[in-house]
User: Fold this.
Amino acid sequence: MKKSLQISIIIFLLLLIGCSDSSNKVNPPPADNDGLSAEQLKALTREMAVPREDITRTLDFPITENKSKLSGIQNTGVASLRMSLILYSEMHGQFPQSLNGLINSGFPIFYPRDVKSGNPQRIVSSKPLLNEQSFGALKYIRTDSNNVQIKYVVHDSGEDIWKLKTLDISNTPVLPDFLSAESGTFIRVNGGTVGVGSIEDNNKRLLYSQFGLWSTYLQDHTGRYYSYQKEFPSSFDDLFDARHLVIKENLETFQALLKSANADFKWGFDYNANVNYTWLAIDDEVLIDECIGYTENLTPIINDCDPEEIDMSSPLLTTESLLELQIPDDYLISINDISIGD
Assistant:
């Protein structure tokens, strides 16, 4: 494990374990059999062994009629905006004035989809978010340069009502008790070796931050794919699902910046070691160096990549393939496709 203790690791674990839709959960067998007969226990065991279906693999909207599942999936989509905002603040020293400003800055590549309608989540400024009709709408509140909120509605299955949820985001996180300043420094880029603000060159800093978005997307989607399929994806296309869209203009900005940079990127899998690796060097400086090994119980183990132990000779994504990357139309949007209103 890196000495630099990364907040991104905690975010990744939460996304993989705590923020999944409720279809991701498997109930354990009843304690003390709960009075079930041997035949009932066998039937329950068979039911638990049936492969789970990842409902985000479909593009039929709404992807489920279950309101709570829709809300759970929506949570992971909004989480992608959280990382975009944090890395933007790392680059500029403050949060953007609006989500519209963030999107038009050319920085965020991935954008959350409304999994009920299939459209990009819409942005509202003054309109209240009250009920089911507000599902898929986001309200951004900038309390000051260091703190923002994203508000959206979710379904409370216990009370069977729609409630307003607030995601608080700060670029000055408070260290938990078990992480002291002496232990290391929070690095916001997944697998990053240095903080974004420590890079002086503007283009290099922007490119590193955007690779941070790629790293987050790849880790999140790999973790979800593996948790359902019990195997690694065989291509980048396997990671597409209903939760996220790619902003065409910002992808092109990223590709133009990448084309002019001296960057070496590798993302892929050592299938024999059951390890997912992400590695980036810019101007011969290693900026991302992370290997995630998966155990049989789906627990990710995050470490530096040791080239003597991990085979990184056949990556699925490289600098060259990113420059030529074509996103399927079902997952590609223009900035103008994002509704912005009152």
In short: Residues 1-34, 44-50, 177-183 have pLDDT under 50 and may be disordered. Helices lie at 7-18, 38-49, 67-92, 99-103, 202-229, 248-259, 319-323. The longest helix spans residues 202-229. The chain has one domain: 7-21+58-171+186-341.
